[in-house]
Amino acid sequence: MLRRFVPLLTFAVLSGCSLTQPQQDQEQTMQAINIMEDRVNFQLATMIKQIDDQNANIDKLDKQISTLSEDMSQRYTDSTLLTFTEEEEEETPIPAIVDNDPRVAHGKVILGEEEWVWLDATQSFYKARIDTGATTSSVSATNVQIFERDGKEWARFNMNHTSDENPSEADIFEAPVVRWVKIRQASANGANRRPVIEAWVKLGQLHEKAQFTLADRTQMTYPVLLGREFFKDIALVDVGKKFVQGMNEQQLQQN
To answer: Can you say whether residue 106 is alpha, beta or left, with left for phi > 0 and alpha for psi between -120 and 50 degrees?
Structure first.
């Protein structure tokens, strides 16, 4: 009889074990899921706290920047008001009387109908006519020779003051040719081709590089003629006056 119940008891015990094992596995799985969920919630809470702390720091920095901006704005306003007040105090007294320079008007040099000009190339003074009717300037030139130097055209000539001047005593002038022009004269047929050179000219406070057409002016009163291209926008011409700028050799040589 006992032998019959032994197999039945063994089967029952094995069946109980098989039912208990899945239940244990399920409990372990749920426990693992709960642990992972707790970890995720903890990490999420930590990140939220860090974000809140960063937002708080940003708000603090914004307030500091706003305070600094207001402080700088106030300082700038105070400085501007102080500067304006000081300028007003400086300009309030009656200005001192300053002697006006008769050679200058409205920031421009005054030129008479005739002026002394200094040419750097020859280190000499020449009497010049200030001609408002002429566009270009010209300089008296005789014995003009065109030659080449460093691949460019140059002109060498004698700068005679008068027709009876000894050529050997005339100033020798050398300068590069910047262009050629055609001059048509009423007393001659056709047009003459003349070179144009550049030279530094000193006239009073003016020290400018000017272009000059080479022409024989020995029969004329002035060896130099200054046209509008030289003095436009920088000088005023008073044809009723002469030698306004004068001849200050020491000042010219210093400059």
So the answer is: left
